[in-house]
Amino acid sequence: MARTLVQLAGIPVSELKGVGPAKAASLAELEIHSVLDLLTTYPRRYIDRTREARLADLGEGEEAMVLVTVESISMRRTRNRKVMVNATVTDGDRTMKVTFFNQPWRERQLAPGTSTILFGRIERFGNRLQMTNPIVDLIGDRTGRIIAVYPQSEKVRIMSWDLAKFMDEVLERAGEFAEPVPPHILHTHGLADRTTAFRGIHAPESMAEAESARRRLVFDELLRVQLALVRRKRLLEATSPGIAHDTTDTASLDRFVDGLPFPLTGAQRRVVDEILSDLARPTPMHRLLQGDVGAGKTVVAVATLLTAIAGGRQGALMAPTAVLAEQHWLGIRSLLEGFEVGAGEAQLFDTRPLAVELLTNRTGAAERKRLLGRLAAGEIDLLVGTHALIQEGVEFASLGAVVIDEQHRFGVEQRAALRSANADGTVPDVLVMTATPIPRTAAMTVYGDLDVSVLDELPPGRTPIVTEWVRTPSDTGELGTEADPGAEATMWARVRAEVDAGRQAYVVCPLIEESDKLEVASAEETFERLRTGELAGLSVGLLHGRVSPAEKEQTMDLFRSGSIHVLVATTVIEVGVDVPNATVMVILDADRFGIAQLHQLRGRVGRGAQQSWCYLVGSAITSDGEARLEALVRSTDGFELAEVDLDLRGEGTLMGQRQKGRNDLKLASLRRDRAWVERARQVAIEVLDDDPDLVDPAHLGLAAELDLFLGDDESSEYLLKS
Ligand code: ADP
Ligand code: MG
Which of 194, 378, 687, 716 could bond to 397 as cystine, CB 3.0-4.6 Å? Predict the structure, then answer.
């Protein structure tokens, strides 16, 4: 009888012969409880012993892997009190000296007589060979050409070879694995069967075999995630009654579009069409709009909301901060000025001006009360605001469409709250907008239960922003990028020249993630220094997280009107601030910011027809930091930058906010396995088209695994709610 993963999940590891109570306890510390947990603990890497070298053959500077036995080992302290462990090792013919710095435990680990694999760079001093801080892989008495190296834990005393030994027993006792994926799918995608895959990943005969095994198991992980996401999405569509907005009468929309001082871009047109067809459908829209900074998302948002309003419903727009909400409110009010709506059913032919109001936590109590009354009476057509929109007591008469700006700032529950049903049980349509594009395949996994629209075209007439990296000396001096003191002077001269020409600039202060307070202090210090130094004589303003709302508003007004030339600020200006007259962005300590954030900040300039500049001031202390700044200099395309970001950071951070799909992604990498994400999505769609509830006998195995890996936990529930 072939084994299913569900069965293996039900067998505790203590049932294995090699696992006694002590080992079982240690494994439990590593979250390995069942035989399935064990089986899905995958090798970190492999040692390909066919590529093992003999010491005698190695030349200076060569990277090599050698199998050696420790002859002697000792520890001492260097003059500057560093711990230094020295070992002499042999491969039978030759000996080599190995030195470890700051790794005192090596003395115990590499007791004389221990066999180990060392991987590192060979140094030759005359006839003597030496390696410093090599990678050490203890393989015990493992034999074979390819040796799997497992993540080991010295703390709980589970070594790679322990895991390998357990794995041998599991594989032997499990025998054949049941195959949950229909054979035609495996065939189409050239995938190995399960049994071959589990054997191949843990005990490959060749690297090619390990690779093919990995491919199959990656596919399994991704398929499960996609099946779950696609299924949830369809379930949501099938079970919550949406609103079929009337999109045939386009008078308001046409008037809005015709009234804009510019024609829509092709991308805006396409996305508005996508949204209109969602709105017309009786199932609730649940769409993500990705568009780079300045791509023109606001117009799309207003078109969406206006369509709902024209049909007699209300709209809501939620922004992450009060500053942003106010800006949206001001902008949208002027966009919708002069629009009228029907004044209620009783007065069919009467109209009143379309009412756009603002609700944030700055709204006074009396004003709030008045607003809520009008909202419940249907006298407010569009409510713009912050989290305040989803607080207790905010009742819409008939909410038709919701736009959420800058989604990454909102938790999923908050989105869910706005989607809660109207009194008549209908659920409003939701459009989530983000200016932090993430690569398509990542979006498919992280936001797989949303439809995705992309504004991939910037409005014409923008002059590309010139980005320069102003290198400053690094504290450590390690990764020596030449600092150029002249470049900083040139930068401040640029700021002054632009101000002289009637334009404005931003200076973003160093990011201090650890402490709000420190960040504010540093911003104040920067402000003082610049005001009396580099920017003396200019009108300089300061904005940070602890400035009072009234003062903040005043500063923003002064900046908007041009009375403030240079705005020194923390990242509070990251999103949404729109002052087209600003042409210079200076980001201090730019190496502390992530790619997405830098890109956002840069997007605050280049909003008009003028040439704009972005200066990234910083030193690259790490190679990642260097790669980030170089990417920013090279590209202004948010999607391209998102790819770089994913390459540099991996998916961990991306997935952070949406836990699920994550626990099961043990092997799959959203960057390395991009193509497989797409294939898995496609397969999931085909399978569910065919068999929506996964009740076909051919799919029962898949259904059981979905429950097993992604079943009843809060995350799948919140995905449903979202
Ligand atoms: P986003 O929110 O996507 O960053 P905005 O909606 O704030 O971008 O638009 C950025 C600027 O581009 C605004 O000043 C807006 O008026 C302008 N804009 C939007 N669409 C177009 C277009 N089709 N042609 C020209 N300018 C546009
Ligand atoms: Mg915007």
Answer: 378
Q: 295 C-alpha to center of ligand 1: Å?
A: 6
Rg (CA), the chain: 31
Token pair in block for residue 223: 């398929």
What would the pLDDT profile of 405-449 be if each residue is shown by its tens digit?
A: 876 555 555 556 565 667 788 889 999 898 777 777 777 777 777
| Residue 264 CB less than 6 A away from ligand 1 | yes
Cα 458 to ligand 1 centroid, rounded to whole Å:
8
- Torsion from C-alpha of 658, 663, 669, 670, nearest 10 degrees: -20
Burial of 208 (0-12, 13-18, 19+ CB in 10 A): exposed
Most confidently modeled range among 22-31, 414-423, 713-722: 22-31
Name the one residue in this structure whose structure tokens are 């202090």: 521
The bound ligand whose nearest atom lies closest to the alpha carbon of 293 is 1
Q: Note the pLDDT tens digit of each residue in 583-610.
A: 999 999 998 888 888 988 898 898 878 8
Extents of the domains making up the chain: 50-143, 180-239+679-705, 251-455, 466-635
Q: Provide the pLDDT for residue 70.
A: 96
Q: Looking at ligand 1, which residue's alpha carbon is closest to its atom 10?
A: 294
Sign of CA dihedral 437, 441, 445, 449: positive
What is the chain's mean pLDDT, rounded?
86
Among all bound ligands, the one having the nearest atom to the CA of 578 is 1
Average pLDDT over residues 229-252: 86
CA 22, 27, 31, 36: dihedral to nearest 10 degrees?
Answer: -120
> Is the distance from the beta carbon of residue 356 to the nearest atom of ligand 1 less than 6 Å?
no
**262 Cβ below 6 A of ligand 1:** yes
Q: Are 71 and 97 in contact (CB under 8 A)?
A: no
Q: Is the CB of 332 under 6 A from ligand 1?
A: no
* Phi, psi dihedrals of residue 618, rounded to the nearest 5°: 170, 170
CATH classification for the domain delimited by 50-143, as one of 1.20.1290.10, 2.40.50.140, 1.20.1090.10, 3.40.20.10: 2.40.50.140
What does the alpha-carbon distance between residue 215 and residue 204 come to, in Å, rounded to a whole number? 13
In the reported structure, the alpha carbon of residue 287 is separated from the centroid of ligand 2 by a whole-number distance in angstroms of: 16
User: Is the Cβ–Cβ distance between 442 and 654 less than 8 Å?
Assistant: yes
Q: Which pLDDT does position 592 carry in this prediction?
A: 85
- Whether ligand 1 lies within 6 angstroms of the CB of 105 is answered as no
CATH of 466-635, one of 1.50.10.10, 3.40.50.300, 2.160.20.60, 3.30.420.40: 3.40.50.300
- Torsion, Cα 474 478 482 488, to 10 degrees, reads -10
| Mean pLDDT to the nearest integer, 26-40 | 93
Measured distance CA(546)–CA(485) in Å, rounded: 33
Q: Of the given ranges (119-133, 142-156, 469-483), which has the lowest mean pLDDT?
A: 469-483
Q: Is 276 in the pocket of ligand 1 (CB under 6 A)?
A: no
218 sits in which H/E element: helix 207-239
Residue 721 has pLDDT above 50, yes or no: no
CATH of 251-455, one of 3.40.190.150, 3.30.1330.10, 3.40.50.10240, 3.40.50.300: 3.40.50.300
Alpha carbon nearest to ligand 1 atom 23, residue: 264
